[in-house]
What we know:
Blueprint: H1 6-14, H2 23-33, E1 41-48, E2 60-64, E3 75-78, H3 84-89, E4 94-96, H4 98-105, E5 113-116, H5 121-125, H6 128-131, H7 149-157, E6 160-164, E7 170-177, H8 182-198, E8 209-216, E9 222-224
Parallel strand pairs: 3-4, 3-5
Antiparallel strand pairs: 1-7, 1-8, 2-6, 8-9
Helix pairs in contact: 2-8
Amino acid sequence: MAKITKNHKEALAKVDKNNVYSLSEAADLVKKITYTKFNASVDLDVRLGVDPRKANQMVRGVVTLPHGTGKTVRVLVLCTPDKEEEAKAAGADYVGLDEYIEKIKGGWTDVDVVVTMPSVMPKVGALGRVLGPRGLMPNPKAGTVTMDIGKAVQEVKGGKIDFKVDKFGIIHASIGKVAFEKNQLIENARELIQTINRLKPAAAKGTYMKSVFLSSTMSPGVAVDPKSVA
């Protein structure tokens, strides 16, 4: 078992494992107990009372965080030549088609989001083996397969994130950085949780939002009272 560092022990001591904190208290605490020298990401883990193996209980969506994620999002646009200028003007980091398809087939995936258009999806579909496992496959539901390339790029760069429940019924999402103001973290978390609430499947029975945890890259998880977010 990995040795617990002195910093981690001190952080653990500040979190009452038996307590459920309000969102405001949790945001405060995560900022206090993060001891990394770098600007760590702040993550939200939401455990839902759904069975993700059943199609009618799958929870997936997109949300635009009011204050962005704090990350620099590298965007690749796979498009026809007539859309290249629009993609570049919107701030895409890489723009093209066949040459990038060949690079990806060779294993290149040095991007965070791939945006494309319906007419080139047959070509992009062939990259499923590489892009799928890395969560990079463009998807119409996530707004990354569209004719409105410029808007899609701007939204992704501006804090729009795609989330979905994993096989354990948990949604993991990064909602900012430790350097964010407390209120920015609270507003981002609230936007995500309220979006997840709106997506509650009709087939889900019992408690929908079972637990919410806020943590940073190196901090212990802090339990958040879901009612403090509504």
